[in-house]
UniProtKB/TrEMBL annotation:
The chain crosses the membrane at residues 12-31, 110-134, 159-186, 435-463, 483-507, 803-825. Belongs to the prominin family. It comes from the Eukaryota. The lineage of its organism: Eukaryota, Metazoa, Ecdysozoa, Nematoda, Chromadorea. InterPro entries: Prominin. Its main location: membrane. It is a multi-pass membrane protein. It is found in: Membrane. The keyword Membrane applies. This is Prominin.
């Protein structure tokens, strides 16, 4: 199986697999332009099973202790002596070849485990032989020992003996359970291994696709976003520059005046709509009140007729309902008057009559002409900027294609066919796994049966009865002796076979742990493995595995460097020095293209320094218009008059659903059924119709009025400015722009150009940041590596280590159990003094055979009548009448 795994990785895959093996310790600037980032459509799933797998904490602690022991016993791997360069190039077959021709050095490498194996096998082979020899000698000396008195165990010695046996049996049962659990974990891990390894290699292909997509997004899509932003910015550059000039000189107050004028025009229109709406609502309230009065009169009339004409109890219900209806308050209230003040609309209309929009259009004409002139200069020169951008974009596109081409050379899909070939349904792997599972179950059942024998022996030996007068074995201590004897001989027979299996499993799994799993967990403590990986990487420099621009991956990056770099969260791009080829970090190769773009943008500054004819634009008509604007000093007062609290209270009173619920509740609580009374049915139907056709539409209209009034109040608050002060500021702003227009345009142009240049710099910084932190990140490879090693080490190798260690402990405890159990057998087989007398007096009835054998005798007297000598004693004892005692007249 180990050989099959090693053959997966052919000569051309050394470098990639070495890198994957080495990634072990892996676990915002605000941009003016928000560049999009790639979102992985598929998630990496190689290590997902780790979080979904139940882990036995007790067994995991046991496995960790074993790994510490393996680390202490194992020697560093002497790869320089065991594997030459040719064997290293083809490491799968190379290890087999090295073992065949350098067996002495391999034995020296596993010297510690060989010593442990030799001592263990010596004990487990010699002990059964000595035990068999001891039993033969004991059997030969049996006649001599029988003449002696049986050994009498003291109670204290019996208790100590049984206590030790109980402890040993409990430990053996726990060990047996750990063998079964480790076997189940190892079999499940082996069954899932092909799928998990295949998933991990699929994740490697996914990582390659995601890296390709990240490069293309960074170099193509993000550049398109920069290009679109530059095109849009230059297309509206004239407006941005003039807006900056107006803002810097104080002429932005013109925009303030225009904005306030637009608000006034909107307020006049909204006022008229609100006024009309409130008038219509007032009429609706009057109609609702009339309908409500009609409803009350009609209901009162129908209820009176019910009281006069109907009999009890209907008339009584109608009387109670009429009295309850009269107690309810009138729900219809008037809408507050003078909500919309007429003096306010007059003031707004006076402002509107000034017609500031026409004046603004006239005096802003010079600014519009200046904007057109500036935009014309930008448009004349923008094709040069766009050409420079195109050159930079073409260069980035070429880089992206070069990288994509190199990434496509890394083919991980070929491993899928190899995995199917070595681990698929048609391979020998499922058959091997099945027989390993069957063999493991057989070993586990042997251990379990052996432990069961010992457990039954102790239970019978402690709780069983002493040997009775009828030589029956049912629930007696002698049965415990037989079970103990069975357990001892089972241990003796299987000990050597189990020890050989244990040693073979131990040597295989411990060396796999030492060479694969332990270096993964503590890489910097295994310089031997790191140096071997360095040799593998150095060998790739001569084998031509990686060609083209990615050949730099082979140079000067040792596994320890990769591990430390990933620990610092560096990207592969940075740690392998790919910037020497693509220059994304130092920006030396393609930054010049963007510098050319920035230089062309700076040309705008020189082109904007021409003479501009800009005369005073504020004429007497505009000054007169500004002086005609009324003062809005009473805005706070008007806003208070627009208070909607009273209107909301009136609205709540018009909700007839409250009345309907109140009346239904009254009828429900009435002890006399009332739904079938015609007067009440008619009243409730009319009330619901009034709510649906009159009250509900009116409430909706009033709700809209409330929302419009709140919006009107908010717009009104924006007019709380001093227009006379604005006029003074505007005159000063005019003087400033007329005197320093050239310098103001130059300054505003610099600000806008710097903003555009900052967008270019932000893109370059975005590239650098992504290449430093995101693109070719270590984290996915770290997760893939974690999943590969977890599927092999945690799920297979560690449980196998647990199996051989548990079997070794089990065999040692079996030796102790055999020694102590031999003493327990003597105690369990001890007989009563009567049986001892029988054995010593068999000469009185040598030919006697019990007619009932070793069965239960429920009536000793019945047996005595059938057999004149039931107890095997001289018959003349029963013929002596003096020895017979009567037991009653009902004897049968």
């Amino acid at each position: 199986m180990y050989r099959q795994i090693m053959r997966l990785f052919d000569k051309r895959s050394h470098f990639v697999i070495t890198i994957v093996f080495s990634y072990i310790l892996i676990l915002n600037l605000t941009y003016c332009i928000e560049f999009t980032t790639t979102i992985d459509q598929e998630k990496y799933s190689c290590s997902n099973f780790i979080g979904n797998t139940f882990e036995d904490k007790a067994l995991r602690s046991f496995y960790d202790i074993l790994n510490d022991i393996i680390h202490q016993v194992s020697k560093p791997f002497p790869h320089q002596d065991l594997l030459n360069n040719d064997e290293l190039d083809n490491i799968g077959d190379g290890i087999v070849h090295s073992i065949q021709y350098k067996s002495t050095k391999w034995l020296q490498y596993i010297q510690g485990w060989l010593i442990i194996s030799f001592v263990f096998l010596f004990i487990t082979i010699i002990f059964p032989l000595l035990w068999v020899f001891y039993r033969i000698c004991s059997y030969c000396c049996k006649s001599k020992s029988e003449s002696q008195e049986p050994f009498d165990y003291s109670c204290f010695r019996k208790y100590i003996l049984n206590f030790i046996l109980i402890i040993i049996v409990i430990i053996k049962l726990v060990i047996c359970g750990s063998i079964f659990m480790s076997l189940i974990y190892a079999e499940y891990g082996g069954d899932k291994l092909p799928d998990r390894i295949g998933t991990c290699f699929n994740d490697l292909s996914l990582y390659k696709r995601n890296t390709d997509a990240a490069f293309r997004n960074l170099l193509i899509e993000n550049f398109k976003e920069l290009n679109a932003s530059m095109v849009s910015s230059i297309s509206r550059g004239g407006n941005d520059i003039i807006e900056n000039v107006k803002k810097n000189t104080g002429n932005s107050v013109l925009d303030t005046i225009r904005n306030k004028t637009e608000i006034v025009k909107r307020l006049v229109k909204d006022f008229e709509n609100l006024y009309n709406s409130t008038e219509e609502a007032s009429k609706g309230v009057k109609r609702l009140k009339n309908e409500w009065e009609k409803f009350k009169n009609l209901s009162k009339k129908e209820l009176v007729e019910c009281i006069d004409k109907d009999q009890m109890p209907e008339s009584g219900v109608c009387r109670m309902f009429k009295d309850h209806l009269e107690t309810l308050p009138n729900p219809i209230e008037e809408i507050p008057k003078n909500i919309m003040l007429k003096d306010l609309i007059n003031l707004l209309k006076d402002y509107e009559k000034v017609n500031l929009i026409e004046h603004l259009n006239r005096i802003e004409a010079p600014f519009n002409e200046l904007e057109d002139k500036v935009q014309s200069i930008l448009n004349t020169h923008k094709h040069i900027v766009f050409n420079k951008l195109k050159i930079a974009g073409d260069y980035l596109f070429t880089l992206s294609e070069r990288i994509t081409t190199q990434l496509r050379l890394l083919d991980f899909n070929k491993y899928s066919s190899k995995i199917i070939y070595h681990f698929g349904p048609e391979s020998h792997y499922p058959t091997i796994l099945k027989w390993i599972w069957i063999g493991g179950l057989i070993i586990g059942f042997i251990c379990a049966i052996n432990s069961l024998c010992y457990m039954l022996a102790i239970l019978y030996g402690i709780f069983g009865k002493k040997t009775d007068f009828y030589e029956t074995d049912c629930c007696s201590k002698s049965t415990g002796g037989k079970y103990m004897n069975c357990g001892i001989w089972t241990s003796i027979i299987t000990m050597t076979i189990l020890s050989i299996i244990t040693v073979l499993l131990m040597i295989t799994t411990t060396n796999t742990s030492n060479l694969v799993c332990l270096p993964y967990k503590n890489p910097f403590q295994r310089n031997d493995i790191l140096s071997m990986l360095e040799r593998i990487i150095q060998r790739t420099n001569h084998s031509g595995i990686t060609n083209g621009e990615f050949a730099i991956l082979r140079e000067g990056r040792m596994p320890s460097d990769i591990i430390r770099a990933c620990g610092r969260n560096e990207t592969f791009y940075k740690m392998f020095g790919l910037d020497n080829t693509y220059h994304f970090l130092d920006l030396s190769s393609y930054r010049q293209e963007f510098v050319n773009v920035e230089k062309e943008l700076e040309q705008y500054i020189h082109k904007m320094t021409g003479q501009y004819d800009f005369k005073e634009y504020i004429d007497d008509q505009f000054k007169t218009a500004l002086s005609m604007i009324p003062n809005f000093n009473d805005i706070n007062k008007w806003q208070e008059s627009l208070n909607t609290v009273l209107l909301k209270e009136s609205l709540e009173g018009m909700d007839l659903t409250t009345y309907i619920k109140d009346l239904n509740l009254f009828l429900k609580n009435n002890p006399i059924p009332s739904p079938n009374i015609d007067a009440i049915k008619s009243l409730m139907a009319n009330l619901e119709l009034l709510e649906k056709e009159n009250a509900l539409p009116l409430r909706n209209d009033i709700n809209n009025i409330i929302k419009n009034m709140e919006k009107f109040s908010l717009d009104l608050s924006q007019l709380n400015i001093n227009f006379q002060d604005i006029r003074s500021r505007l005159i000063m702003a005019q003087s400033t722009i007329v005197k320093g227009l050239r310098s103001e345009i130059s300054s505003a142009t610099k600000d806008i150009i710097n903003k555009w240049k900052n967008d270019v710099e932000e893109y370059l910084s975005h590239i650098k940041k992504k290449m430093n932190e995101d693109v070719t990140t270590c984290k996915p490879i770290a997760d893939i590596t974690k999943g590969i090693f977890a599927s092999v080490c945690n799920q297979i190798i560690d449980p196998l280590n647990g199996i051989w260690a548990a079997m070794m402990l089990y065999i040692f405890l079996s030796i102790v159990m055999i020694i102590i159990g031999s003493y327990a057998i003597k105690e369990y087989r001890s007989t009563s003094s009567y049986n001892n007398w029988r054995k010593n007096n068999r000469l009185f009835s040598p030919a006697y055979q019990s007619p009932i054998g070793n069965t239960f005798a429920t009536d000793a007297f019945e047996i005595r009548n059938k057999d004149p000598n039931p107890y095997g004693v001289p018959a003349d004892i029963f013929n002596n009448s003096s020895t017979i005692k009567p037991y009653g007249v009902y004897r049968s």
